[in-house]
Amino acid sequence: MTSPFRIALIDDHGLCRRGLAELLEARAGVQVVGATASADEAVELATQETLDLIVMDLRMSPTDGFQLLKRFRDSGSEVPVVILTMSDNGEDLGNMLRLGVRGYLLKDMEPDQIVESIVRAAGGEFVVAPAMALKLAELLREGKSRQERENSLGQLTAREREILGHVARGLSNKAIARQLGISHDTVKLHVRHILAKLNLGSRVEAAVFAIENRVETLDEGHHGLRQAASVVPAAGNVGSKPEAGSGH
């Protein structure tokens, strides 16, 4: 397996940084352009390097993943971030999704599974550790009655529902634009409106919401309707693409 992706690793454990870098380079051909425990160096990587993905630990000292992700965004970086952590806490998952991460992986996953998930995330997919899939679904159900969900869906225009279905199928903004014959910027705007109307924090939440509420979309040949594909298959990959503001 080879990959053209450029990735940075942020972790305060040197062994984890070195081991993951070696795995990514040897097994996937990924170019690890930087690996650091320093928050300042991490921000420099996020803003100065051309990156496809940042893989970052959550529990770090003295700057944890929450603070560092906010620093990335405050600095203007839109590089997608995947969390790789030991924390299987549902609250941590929810907080990071609201901050717009592209994935949430656990360090006790099999090494090959971690590598595969990181490569998929660099290519534009949302990825979630299999052990976190149920917690992800529970997060979306909390405090949401069936009537509330139906009311939220009722706020969407026909075009927004169509785009939501494509998001659930795993299409990127650019792919949706090609599919519908509209501009990339128009799709980004629609996705932002969808997230705002549904009170969701990320595309992965929107994808799961679409599945749970049976939002349908035209198939690729435009020959009828089909139900959006599941976003949590056995491998732990979540079939969605980058945040609305991402250019990837």
Task: Describe the protein's architecture and organization.
About 50% of the residues lie in helices and about 15% in strands. The two termini are about 20 Å apart. Helix 8 packs across helix 10. It has eleven helices and nine strands.
* Ends distance: 21 Å
Fraction of residues in H or I helices = 40-55%
Count of strand segments: 9
Report the structural category.
Answer: alpha/beta
Percent strand? 5-15%
Number of contiguous helices: 11
Global outline: globular
Mean pLDDT: 80
SSE order, one letter for each helix or strand: EHEHEHEHEHEHHHHHHEEE
- Biggest β-sheet: count, sense, barrel? 7 strands, mixed
Sheet with the most strands: spatial strand order:
2-1-3-4-5-6-9
Q: Residue ranges: pLDDT <50 for 5 or more in a row?
A: 218-248
Q: If you compute it from the alpha carbons, what radius of gyration comes out, rounded to the nearest whole angstrom?
A: 18 Å
